[in-house]
Amino acid sequence: MRKRGITVKLFAVTALFFLAFYAMIMIFQLLFFDRFYEHHKTKEAAAHLHRLANGYEDDSWSEEELTKQTLAYMRETKSPLTIVDKDGYQLVRDPFNIMMKTESGEEVEVALSLLVTDYGNDLRTLDIKKGDTLTVQGETDGTVTTVMYPSVITNEDASVGEDLVDNEVTMQGTVTSISLPESGMLNKGIGLLYDALLEWFPLEKAELKKLSKGESLQLDWIEPWSGKHNLVLIDPVEKEGEKQYLFSITSLQEIKDTNEALQLFYFYIGIAGLVLILLLSLIYSRLVSRPLIKLNEMAKKMVHLDFSSAKPIKQKDELGSLSNNMLTMAQNLDAALSELKQANGQLKQDMEKRKRMEKAQREFFEHASHELKTPLSIVKSFAEGLQDGVSPNKQDHYVQVIIEESDKMEVLIKDMLDLAKLENGVIKLRKTSIMLSEMIEELAAKLFNMAKEKNVTIEIIPQNELPITADYEWMERVMRNFLVNAIRHSEADSVITIRIASDQETGSSNFSIENKGLHIPEEQMKKIWTRFYRTEASRSRMTGGTGLGLAIIQQILTLHRFDYGVENTTEGVRFFVKFDK
What we know:
The protein is an alpha+beta fold. The protein has 14 helices and 17 strands. The protein has helices at about 1-30, 35-60, 65-75, 115-125, 190-200, 205-210, 255-285, 290-305, 320-390, 390-425, 435-445, 450-455, 470-490, 550-560; strands spanning about 80-85, 95-100, 105-110, 135-140, 145-155, 160, 170-180, 215-220, 230-240, 240-250, 430-435, 455-465, 470, 495-500, 510-515, 565-570, 570-580. The longest helix has about 70 residues, at about 320-390. The two termini are about 70 Å apart. About 20% of the residues are buried.
């Protein structure tokens, strides 16, 4: 019963949706489409004509340019156009014409619009070209004798047109230019344009009054001969001190014809839609079994404690309710298992962390006791020597050694305390803008005597340097450790090269310090950042330092989130840091 109920629901929803959608389309088509399309067509044609009027009024177009713009308008709107005065007389050259030069040298315009209306295709077959000699029979304009309206045009032995009887004039001349409509524009209402001119001109006083105010006219016109519905557009312009009017006519009859065809088309779509309803109902009734299959698959996965892929079935019926209950149960079980796994994982991490901390503490105390053992032994032995009464000439030396070893122990203890602060994350950075080259120059000056002992030269090469943002004191500590480390491990009479280069686009800077000396074995590259680690197998203190310098550098740069590293070069070792903006 449930299966049948769901099927009925699917069938009813599908049918109602389709019928409502189809009814909405038909209502819109029957009641509103004519007016909508007519409004759209009128608005589009009026906008095109207004743009042409503005261009004609504002720009000094030549006859050729005006003809070009007129033809462009006719191509875009598929509507004929002319420019007339208030009485309906044309003021511009016919856009479709032949310019012909007679034997007497007179330039004659052969207007083709009327001939194109009836003989457009035949006229095109004459294949008239510039330089051809034509014989034209027809009437001349009563006011402009250089304009001729042809009835027959003859090119060699071929003729187009129909002979007139009255007022016929014959002219012969050479073609200087020709303008014919494109094949798609033939018979596109050119004759209708002249019928409309005769119908609407001269204009009524009310219409002239609106045009005198600069308003455009949009007039409905039913052609008397065919009864077709047309739109007449008139746009006024001011040209050379006189009023002129752009006159165009657009057919609206095609809207009604198209709408009638669409109504029949939607009727057939409705029949097809009814068939589609039955097909969809059959498909949807089979789809009802899919939720049951999903529920079965969900239950199988839950048996194996797999709750990750459980998804609800979004239906407001018993199957949907069962799916939601199973999903809730799966989520609760999954959450409980996840918490248990997380707690177990956290316990393992805590135990591993505790082991690492205990190991680190043991290593720290071992290394610290090892580092402190030697200076303490020296201090003790020299103090005992003083107590035993060494010769007076050696007392100053003994005291000096005790002071030096005490200073070393003080530096070691300070480094250990700083490293502990850095590792515990209690340090708060006070970032400022720093010029690395200036900082390094000051440090190099302070370490001059140390470098002089090995006759080592420090060379600083900045390139497009930009300031970096960092904590000045800690960054000075980093640079000092880098310099001291480089001097200690440099060969005598060598050069330490420091390069600082900045990227002007990203604002990042790259720092590198390179010394000439022994290479670091590849297997020790990662170990050198460890506390108290020295590359010498003997872990000798003769090279100086506490063994914490690189560990401190690592913690400071990590705290600043700067990338760093070390690599062997051809002649030595290079440390590098990338300072992001």
